[in-house]
Design a protein that fits this description.
By secondary structure, the chain is an alpha/beta fold. Helix content is about 50%, strand content about 15%. The strands form two sheets. A six-stranded mixed sheet has the order 4-6-7-8-5-9. A three-stranded antiparallel sheet has the order 2-1-3. It is globular, with a radius of gyration of 28 Å.
Length: about 400
């Protein structure tokens, strides 16, 4: 296959138009030249010639496929993100009117999406003077599980949590309790925090992230008191409560430097967790499961482990992030060999970096060299940053 496709439109005085599509293959060069010359010299009064690269056609095909996939999966954010990339590409080609129309439609769609989400769930606003202010931050995520690249077993477990939450009244009528208390374990960047946001998005509930700097204090007994305030709020304010970096609260009680306060905080948390009968989800996440007290694990309804991505997950992440570009030239095995040992978050950032390089170069093509360079840069950054 050649590197381009040429469209030649020949117009007769009578108004008849003939369209020829010629590939850029060398065998067609003579045909293209002779055809144009004969048209000019004989019965045609005008010749219009357009040349479009295969990479351009591939990128447009990829964009259409990506738009359809995101629409079918119900991933509105990915759909609008790809649509915005299409608008940016049209603007680079000088099609300013089309680009403006696309951007206007995207803005209207986003406003409609936000309005629909707001009608589906009440917006929780914490007043500055309430006891809960300073102890939690509130967000309303629009992330969905479809935004995440998950292994099939992990995806099934999270769907089970959603199903039991949605049907908790039925379960309770039969004397059964839904899975509400989740402990997420895994290396940094593997998707634990994003899981909490996705569950909140799926359930149209606010995500209340516990602010450890506001909960943990140096004054004896005060941390346990603040934990009690949070658990009491769970009964009046339904939502998804996330204890991130949970090892700060759930550390082992047999540490050598323990002065007694760690034991009191952990004992208070265990008692509050055991007695909790609220309806929302309680999620604890940690990068250091080895630091947790063994008594914690049996207190949660589900303990879910996250791992670094395998080749299939890493490729799926990159294809999703680069859906609006032409990736047909990427040597995937070479790229995937370089991603091993990186987290999902690292792969996302590397993909975005490769995309930015193409955009700034006014190109729609992603090359192996660009992706590998971005991955190596991300690996270097990961080595330098603390893995807390």
């Amino acid at each position: 296959m050649g590197s381009s496709i040429t469209a030649i439109r020949l117009c007769r005085p009578s108004g008849t138009r003939i369209l020829f599509l010629l590939t850029g293959d060398a065998r067609c060069e003579g045909l293209r030249g002779s055809l144009a010359l004969s048209a000019i010299g004989k019965s045609f009064n005008c010749v219009h010639r357009y040349t479009v690269s295969h990479s351009y056609l591939m990128s447009r095909a990829n964009q259409v496929l990506a738009l359809l996939k995101s629409h079918i999966s119900g991933d509105d954010q990915q759909f609008l993100s790809i649509a915005m990339q299409v608008a940016a590409h049209e603007a680079r080609l000088g099609h300013t009117k089309v680009a403006e129309q696309l951007r206007d439609l995207i803005d209207k769609a986003r406003q409609k999406h936000i309005g629909a989400d707001n009608r589906g769930a009440p917006i929780l606003v914490l007043q500055p003077k309430t006891e809960l202010a300073g102890l939690v931050s509130v967000t309303h995520p629009d992330v969905r599980l479809a935004n995440m690249s998950l292994e099939t077993p992990l995806h099934a477990r999270l769907n089970r949590v959603l199903n039991e939450y949605r049907q908790q009244n039925t379960l309770r009528e039969h004397g059964l309790r839904p899975r509400r208390k989740l402990l997420l374990l895994g290396a940094p960047g593997t998707g634990k925090t994003m899981t909490a946001a996705a569950l909140a998005g799926e359930l149209h509930q606010p995500l209340l992230t516990i602010l450890l700097e506001g909960v943990i204090t140096k004054f004896m007994g005060e941390t346990a008191s603040k934990l009690r305030i949070i658990f009491e709020a769970m009964h009046s304010t339904e939502g998804i409560y996330l204890f991130d970096e949970f090892d700060a609260i759930g550390a082992r009680r047999d540490q050598i430097n323990d002065v007694g306060e760690i034991r009191r905080v952990l004992n208070s948390f265990l008692q509050l967790l055991d007695s909790d009968e609220s309806r929302g989800l309680i999620i604890a996440a940690t990068n250091h499961p080895d630091l947790l007290d063994p008594a914690l694990f049996r207190r949660f309804d589900d303990v879910i482990e996250y791992s670094l991505p395998g080749d299939s997950i890493a490729r799926n992440i990159m294809l999703n992030r680069l859906a609006a570009f032409d990736t047909s030239r990427v040597q995937w095995q070479e790229v995937l060999d370089k991603t091993r040992g990186l987290s999902q978050a690292d792969v996302v950032r590397a993909s975005d970096e490769a995309a930015k390089q193409s955009v700034l170069a006014h190109s729609v093509v992603i090359t192996t060299e660009n992706v590998v360079a971005a991955i190596e840069e991300r690996r270097s950054a990961s080595r330098q940053s603390p893995r807390g």
